[in-house]
Amino acid sequence: MSNPILVEVLRGTLVESRHSGAVAVVDTGGRRVLALGDVERPVYPRSAVKALQALPLVESGAADRYGLGPEELALACASHSGEPGHVATAARMLALAGLDEGALRCGAHWPIHQPSAHALARGGGTASTLHNNCSGKHAGFLCMACSIGAEPAHYLQPAHPVQRAVKATLEALTGTVISQDVCAVDGCSAPTWAVPLAALARGFARFGTGAGMTPERAKAAARLREACAAHPWHVAGTGRFCTGIMERFRERAFVKTGAEGVYCAALPEQGLGIAVKCDDGGGRAAEVMMAATLKRFLPVSLDTLTLEPLVRPSLRNWNGVAVGAIRPTELLTA
User: What one-character DSSP code corresponds to residue 40?
Assistant: First the structure.
């Protein structure tokens, strides 16, 4: 099944590029409210499921044992930009468990936030594992490992108790049995499992409502949602799509990016989960897909009207001249 064209890029009045993809909007019972394209095709959600991966951190008692507050929990769900506040929070999480950045196995890269990267370089610094956008997730993994008495050095192995708990959580929320042959390695070296897009959407509907969860897991999900709603900057960073959406909607919308054109979201009041995949991995097209879907399913309000610049962002050249736009196709906005 070929996925439809969902996003067009215009230069002047002509379509210069087109992006195909798939969108799934599903309720907690698995009913498909919207299905565009092949929503049964397994995709690697990558960082889009970090909030689901963080559930065992809270359920296991590790978050309480080490006194992790809302900022730390939001960072455990984050693909952060490596700004100083992000780095400090990740270091604090590790210190609470008696560890330092040497325990992280995510690899190092320069901050995504360019001003922070430039400031680091000007000061003679270099990129560390704390600057990795996944350092909060990994710090959460390590806190859980230490709390349950599991060997922290091997926390990224699929057979490690932390990763077994993460996989079991993903299976329970998505209603999918994940086989070992769809296990791959993420950019941060953590395991990543392919899941059908519709199942991902169902998982986020459950994450957003607590439906189909034990009382303990539902409380953990609510705690993570509340942390991210209160501290959306910790989930991404300055000028980032996820932060901007959650600053607008707070508890009404949880949104999380993944790599290669994947986004997931939870709309707690509507009881819906959303998962989108841009076929070519284009992040700008995936953002338009998610913004258009949010606008379609959130109640009309002043907040949803402010989504319009994200639904149809303008394109400008290096001189700041408007040269075109990105827009969703009618199939996505109908």
Answer: T
